[in-house]
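Progress against Task 2.4 (sequence-to-structure conversion) is shown through the following example record, which the project officer requested during the mid-term review.
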Amino acid sequence: FNDRYVLANPKTATDSDFSGIERVVGHEYFHNWTGNRVTCRDWFQLTLKEGLTVYRDQEFSADMNSRAVKRIGDVMRLRTAQFRQDAGPMAHPIRPESYISMDNFYTVTVYEKGAEVIRMMATILGTDGFRKGTDLYFERHDGQAVTCDDFVAAMEDATGEDFTQFKRWYSQAGTPVLEATTAYDADLKQLSLTVKQSCPATPKQSAKEPFDIPLAVGLIGKESTQPVPLKLQGDSAAAGTTKVLRVTEPEQTYTFVDVPEDVVPSLLREFSAPVKLTVPQRTDADLQFLMVHDTDEFCRWEAGQEYAQKVLLALIKGETPDLTGLVAAFKGTLCDTSLDNAFKALALSLPTESYLADLLPEGEADPDVIHEKRELLVRSICEACAVDMWAVYEANKDAVRGETSGEAAGRRSIKNLMLMYLTKITDADPKALTTAIAQFESAENMTDQLGAMSAVVLSCPPEAPGAAVAREEVLANFYEQWKHDNLVVLKWLGMQASGSGMTVEGMQKLMAHEAFELKNPNKVYATIGGFCAVPVNVHKLDGSGYKFMADVVKDLDKINPQVAARMAGLFTGWKKYAPAQRRDTMKAQMESMLAADLSPDT
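Structure tokens generated for the chain above:
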């Protein structure tokens, strides 16, 4: 068992570490029922226990902390890891039909997407219905080895629901795409919502049958700014302000009646299905409106992300979008004192470079351009909001008497995010660098110490006065303080590997340090994984990053094939990168790995 998910105290572990420990320990405990008391008939049913148990640990963490923050975090992981797997050559359904090596079954698709399939059933059945289904499942199968079909049958028999079409989620790979359009008739006070679904081809599955997709919908009045009670045509009365629609056809239209005013639709509430949603009619004004008035916190966060993505993609394509609206929306969220700090920190975080690359058409993702344009937007926001950022930092700098652990963690998350942003412009205002150094030196917990070090090492421009010296001193002092603690040293290794401007030569030097061991999986994930996590570093146009990674995979394969297979995942998205020189170099390195007679895992 990985010791970093068991051993922790506030001086050596961050708030994120504690959340991870809560999740993993909960997950393994919940396996007592979903995995041990009732287990899998064969390995092809792995998602039966893992998808269900991931769902259970997600719900446990949501109950223990902020449900919205937990849900957003889970969706971010799903989109950056599982959606990418669905879009690549390794795409497979949550219940695969074959395998080369059993070790390769432990994927984000089997686990995280499997959890989403369970969540969709819970959404369709409701809390009481889902509980009836699980009670029947345990009653029927305690002490047995069963299949995914047995679980679905228990849900059907306990509630009377028909999940025949829904079971396509178990056999079809890929991420479905929904396109939603609306039309409001003021005279009839009706709103029509038309939804189209499709799913791209995946290996061995060129054509897909329609999925059964639960789409949670709300309507927010444009004038009242309040959620509208929902009544579908044919319903006897309105029932609540969120309604779950079943999208089962390639195209369906739903008509809401007694809608007293024009509305802005709030769609895919709580991320009710693992799909990609497009709303062509949605304007910048609509997104700004939802960022302020949507009562579903996931959709409120999503509106901000969509707005930022829209601006960033325009910049990446060489356009010159007006940044005024996005900056104003950012400042509005920043200054909204009614928001939970942990949620606010997520809402103020821009889409990552890796995620932006996934949004671009195949063959058009240039990591250098993406990095340049994202940095441009970040700097523009920081310059416009610096005064307010300082105010938020100061307001959350110190502990508050009586605050809960969750409130303290939220306070630290927003404080450290502000420090990261402010050090972006420390070349114009050195106060941010001196503040970060002071926080590093006085920090009483790892979250604040690491937050300050991140600001100095990862965020501060190298050319800023005093930045280079501060970086070296902070890294040296951190290592000297914590070199006796292997788990903390992982953070030190990862910090350097993911630093701006890290080169292959720098990585080779870091791997030669006494703290690194190629035989230690945690150190490989922290160091090599950290390097791979920064596209502009690993995707150097000269191909040096690709050759370095291919050599690492070859060496790792002789020591730990499972870890080598994970590191080789860098190459699975090779077709999306630009220019062609990158694709050709990645392909050549993949061919060199194939020629090295690697293990079946890799």
